[in-house]
Hints:
34% of the residues lie in helices and 35% in strands. The protein is of the alpha+beta class. It has a five-stranded antiparallel sheet with strand order 3-2-1-6-7, covered by helices on one side. Strands 5-4-8-9 form a four-stranded antiparallel sheet, covered by helices on one side. Strand 2 (74-83) and strand 3 form a beta hairpin.
Amino acid sequence: MKHEQNGLTLIELMVVIAMLSIIAAIAIPNWVEEVQQENRNEAIDNSRSAIQQLYITALSSGGASLSATYGPSLTTYTISATASGVSSTYIIHAPRGTTLYLNAPTASVLSCFAVDGKGFPSTTNGCSIPAKLVYPLSWSVSYAGQTVPISVQ
């Protein structure tokens, strides 16, 4: 009489679970690190894009302002300008936890910054010029505890 086996034994099931646990222990930390690296790159790229858009809009419209809103789910950069009675607004999003800095002797978190039609800081659109600016202006972005200088050219 033959004994036919249906399903898995307890030992086989435990071996499979152990193998999956080992694979998960290796894969999950690498995946988390990859996601953080991608978010950091997105934060840098989107912050750089916001600054470039500020200067492009300012030069084409005679001035523009960039305001940063640091929300619980993401960071939003709003670039706005008005030229010849026509308003233009650009919105760029960055991952939650992104902070943009304008580097003066002491770096200050950027919330509002305006430039005139020549690209120089101005006090228009409710933005004030930070004290003790150092020229050329330098920018940096912080994400997940790392602050990285960004070049805008």
